[in-house]
Amino acid sequence: MNVRKDFTILKQSVKGQPLIYFDNAATSQKPQCVIDELNSYYSHYNSNVHRGVHYLSQLATEKYEQARVVVQQFINAQYDREIVFTKGTTDGINLVANAWGLENLGEGDEVLISAMEHHSNIVPWQMICQKTAAKLVVAPIDETGELIIAEFEKLVSSKTKLVSITHISNTLGTINPVDKLIEIAHKNNAKVLIDGAQSVPHLNIDVQQMNCDFFVFSGHKLFAPTGTGVLYVKEDRYKEMSPYQGGGDMIKDVAFEKTTYNSPPHKFEAGTPNIAGFIGLKSAIEYVQKIGLNNIYSYEQNLHNFAFDEMSKISEIRFIGTASNKASVISFLVGKTHPFDLGTLLDQLGIAIRTGHHCTQPLMDLYKIPGTARASFCFYNSEKEIEFFIKALKRCIKMLAA
Ligand code: PMP
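^ thats the input. predicted complex w/ 4'-deoxy-4'-aminopyridoxal-5'-phosphate below
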């Protein structure tokens, strides 16, 4: 893929070695077109949205609202009003937990998540369950890191009001069969939130076909600025939601006696948003669309399979997460070495991987490990980088054994 030229950051050396960035599941790098878009906004039309009659404000508003349409088309939502701009995945889940959860959950109700969830799809539900007396239920996984569908099916009942589940595990790389899970949930009248933080940068998303009720993702993992995120809300769900935060933009009229609210999505976007960020998100999506998600997916699968095969030849390596349907994320351990030590050694060779619990502590408890080393690949990575990484791993293993 001829894309390296678009990422200035990747051209640098770290510790005297060409940078190899394998921490894409944490955040992705930004192509020059996104950086240029931010520069252009701040250099030429920085202004607040939805408020001014002046030229700059109108231009900023137009571009900001265009971003909403681009997102709508990108995930194939039916209407642009179904797209709520947030700060990220975490913010989106908290929004649903508060705006929908507080209204629709009570004693005897259940929220079903899975054992592989990120903390941001656990803690907001614990908080809301505490407030509403609803119960948090966890669907188990098997040792390969796959959700056990039969167990999931048993746990969905008339008590289940919401299933909130990740599309792709950031730690294991498991791609969950969300279509099937949504079908099971809907048969039982439960609503479904899909955490798309790890899927949106790698898979074609069609929320209508998926038929989820809520879908959340972060801009920063999709080559867009930090502090941007998207919450898709199926139109029907809006009538079950109350505003989560009050302030400017989310209102129609305010008097001390009574306030009337703006219509969605603005009703859920109180305050000045990350205007530049969302204009950058539009540019990032257009960039991804130019390459094509099908091309991205197959390229990354090849990278993953190449790395996985090569790593499998190293006897000291133990993989955490070996699901049959897996994204380009490899979590692993090397003998008894602590992942931090391995990460530090690889950093000396210019290789950036992630180490730790990856905000999935309950999952680490399940595997009875403190954390993993994680390499996650993107379309701007290459087989050559993986070859260097494998050599570096072997060198580290030798050094650790010495
Ligand atoms: N869910 C998953 C699966 C993730 O990978 C992440 C980020 N690691 C999040 C949620 C949280 O995303 P953010 O920090 O961008 O809100």
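The mean pLDDT is 97.
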